[in-house]
């Protein structure tokens, strides 16, 4: 039924029907339109440190620059040896036993590795337990892989720790894996050791592969301690993800790692699938891999930014205080990561459509935030604020949010 002279309509694959990534969805598109019209927008929507003047130390860049000439060929599909060795040593320091460079797979950001890990794992209808709220790539990648993301509740009144009884109640014969995002995006929670042990016990009892996204493992406030899932459960197969985007402020390099730990035998066949996918994309970008040994072995330490008087700490504190002063807004004070996830009391603000609210906020106040349902939260009463901007910008932005909320009705 091809008509001469008429272009064929190209539709998208039906498996994308359940795949969403609202952080860069309709709200951001509206922001781009406003910018094209000449409006200046305060953008607190993406955890991208460099545009806010948070740069990687010079030593990391100079090592990458010096390695450029050696970066012209494809590398081993898993990544260059010096970087995989540095990641293996790093995991030794985290207390994860037995990690060798052969257990390390590098990728173009954790994002690529999340998609690969799930593509290699899932059969149609397989279920994966994913936190709610989550970093939405996890839900999207499960659905893209033909599986079904089943959301477990993280409880605001437990400082956003997972509700482990709820997690356990969701396990079915189809459940294959448990996703743990700790420190968490979007809530800023850093899970207690007891919560993690209880979560890992669910995985142990039901033979679930543990997928631990620990990209914010070093971004901790107020003495919070991060426990690596892999260190707490040496008897379980765990895939831990981390990378250069946040702690080392190199999001544009697209450089991350996936580390396999625990008993190797039960997941040997799965790993062949992972290797196949690694081979099919040839290798991750080679120049960006050279940043890894420079950062991990170079004694680069982000704590000065996190201690009292440090920039990230000051920004978190100011943003948290300003948000919680707005009538009808309360907020857990994040112990880690780069985000605040305030709650707009439904008794006061009555938001029915939180994406609509973020578009209205953008149009009225030229402030870009992300709606809570974009993180697979079932209720419409949260928004995410990235606190990477300098305090003056945060103060202006949260002032605008307060003004907006004082008269906003849906
Ligand atoms: N995982 C989490 C929890 C994140 O917040 C992000 C980025 O915001 C990523 C993964 C993706 O990181 P990358 O830049 O390494 O792809």
Automatic annotation (TrEMBL):
Family: Belongs to the class-I pyridoxal-phosphate-dependent aminotransferase family.
Cofactor: pyridoxal 5'-phosphate
Enzyme class, broadest EC rank: transferase
E.C. no: 2.6.1.2
Transmembrane segments: none
Lineage: Bacteria, Bacillati, Actinomycetota, Actinomycetes, Streptosporangiales
Name assigned to this protein: alanine transaminase
InterPro entries, sorted: Ala_Aminotransferase, Aminotransferase_I/II_large, PyrdxlP-dep_Trfase, PyrdxlP-dep_Trfase_major, PyrdxlP-dep_Trfase_small
Gene Ontology terms, MF aspect: L-alanine:2-oxoglutarate aminotransferase activity; pyridoxal phosphate binding
Superkingdom of the source species: Bacteria
Domain Aminotransferase class I/classII large: 40-399
Keywords: Aminotransferase, Pyridoxal phosphate, Transferase
Organism: Trebonia kvetii
């Amino acid at each position: 039924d091809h008509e001469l002279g008429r272009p064929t309509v190209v539709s998208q694959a039906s498996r994308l029907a359940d795949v969403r990534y609202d952080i860069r969805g309709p709200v951001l598109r509206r922001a781009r339109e406003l910018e094209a019209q000449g409006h200046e927008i305060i953008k607190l929507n993406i955890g991208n440190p460099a545009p806010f003047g948070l740069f990687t130390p010079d030593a990391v860049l100079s090592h990458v620059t010096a390695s450029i000439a050696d970066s012209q060929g494809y590398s081993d599909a898993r990544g260059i040896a010096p970087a995989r060795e540095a990641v293996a040593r790093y995991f030794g320091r985290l207390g994860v036993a037995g990690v060798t460079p052969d257990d390390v797979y590098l990728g173009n950001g954790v994002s690529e590795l999340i998609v690969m890990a799930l593509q290699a794992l899932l059969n149609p209808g397989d279920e994966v337990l994913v936190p709610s709220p989550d970093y939405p790539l996890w839900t999207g990648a499960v659905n893209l892989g033909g599986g079904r993301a089943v959301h477990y509740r993280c409880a605001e009144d437990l400082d956003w720790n997972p509700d482990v009884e709820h997690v356990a109640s969701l396990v079915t014969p189809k459940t294959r894996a448990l996703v743990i995002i700790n420190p968490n995006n979007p809530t800023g929670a850093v899970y207690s050791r007891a919560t993690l042990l209880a979560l890992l016990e669910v995985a142990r009892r039901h033979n679930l592969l543990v997928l631990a996204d620990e990209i914010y493992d070093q971004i901790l406030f107020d003495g919070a301690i991060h426990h690596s899932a892999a260190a707490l459960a040496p008897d379980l197969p765990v895939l831990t993800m981390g990378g250069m985007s946040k702690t080392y402020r190199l999001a544009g390099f697209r450089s991350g790692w996936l580390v396999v730990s625990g008993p190797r035998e039960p997941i040997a066949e799965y790993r062949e699938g992972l290797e196949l996918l690694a081979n099919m994309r040839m290798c991750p970008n080679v120049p960006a891999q050279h940043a890894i040994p420079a950062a991990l072995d170079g004694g680069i330490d982000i704590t000065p930014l996190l201690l009292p008087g440090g920039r990230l700490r000051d920004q978190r504190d100011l943003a948290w205080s300003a948000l919680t002063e707005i009538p009808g807004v309360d907020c857990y004070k994040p112990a880690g990561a780069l985000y605040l996830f305030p709650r707009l009391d439904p008794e006061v603000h009555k938001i029915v459509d939180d994406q609509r609210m973020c578009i209205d906020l953008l149009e009225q106040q030229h402030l870009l935030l992300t709606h809570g349902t974009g993180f697979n939260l079932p209720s419409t009463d949260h928004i995410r604020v990235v606190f990477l901007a300098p305090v003056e910008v945060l103060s202006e932005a949260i002032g605008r949010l307060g003004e907006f909320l004082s008269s906003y009705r849906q």
